[in-house]
Design a protein that fits this description.
- This protein is mainly alpha-helical and 205 residues long.
- It has helices at 12-24, 36-40, 72-89, 96-118, 137-143, 150-191; strands spanning 2-5, 29-32, 44-45.
- A 3-stranded parallel sheet has the order 2-1-3.
- Helix 1 (12-24) links the parallel strand 1 and strand 2.
- Helix 1 packs parallel to helix 3 (72-89), helix 1 (12-24) crosses helix 6 and helix 4 (96-118) crosses helix 6 (150-191).
- The radius of gyration is 23 Å and the shape is globular.
- 35% of the residues are buried.
């Protein structure tokens, strides 16, 4: 499988999209280029070319029901989220429904924040302390750009994104399993029959 994204300055959305796709499809080759002919030969071209997994075209490329617009990461996650969860977490024998649920959890935990930042969609207000801002994943990835060695810098960012993704997927899996265990426990509690508990009807006072 051939993957294509743009070269030059990278952002969290293309870096995390690349890390997730490479985990989902082992053996895939990533080509960073803006050459239209090379992009046209890709199985998945993201954050470049104006296609299904790009969001730079006029009007963007859709938004979630909550209003957060899709960036490249969210677009590929929407298409391949379950496969990405399986690849990142090493889940080879779980139900498809579980993978979809875990992918939705990762979208809420991480993907939406990265998409929002890339699209300039504010998720928080002004800084509490003037001149001091919180650090986001998107900021950390952006700081890794180095025009002196752009490809090496991208590889460094890719490794960090891969580590973050694998940990977030593990946390999401724990959430999904915990919620399932809670539902099962509640179901068992509701299923308990109390018909064997009878009160005496002729009790003397």
């Amino acid at each position: 499988m051939k993957l294509v994204t743009h070269d030059g300055i990278f952002h969290a959305d293309d870096v995390f999209a690349a890390a997730a796709l490479l985990a989902a499809f082992p053996g895939a080759a990533l080509d960073r280029t803006r050459n239209p002919q090379r992009a046209a030969t890709a199985h998945v071209a993201f954050d470049v070319g104006g296609g299904a997994y790009d969001h730079h075209q006029r009007g963007g490329n859709g938004a979630r029901p909550n209003g957060i617009p899709y960036a490249a990461f969210g677009l590929v996650w929407k298409a391949y989220g379950p496969e990405m969860v399986a690849g990142l977490g090493g889940y080879t024998s779980v139900e498809t429904g579980w993978l979809f649920t875990a992918a939705d959890a990762v979208d809420r935990m991480l993907v939406q924040q990265i998409d929002a930042a890339d699209n300039g969609y504010a998720l928080s207000g002004p800084p509490v302390i003037d001149g001091v801002r919180g650090v986001s994943v998107s900021s950390v990835i952006a700081w890794l750009n180095d025009e002196r060695r752009p490809e090496q810098a991208f590889e460094t960012a890719l490794g960090i994104a891969d580590t973050i993704l694998r940990n977030v997927v593990r946390q999401a899996a724990n959430q999904v399993d915990g919620a399932a265990a809670m539902r099962a426990a509640l179901h068992r509690m509701r299923a308990v029959s109390y018909t064997h508990l009878t009160l005496p009807t002729n009790r003397e006072v």
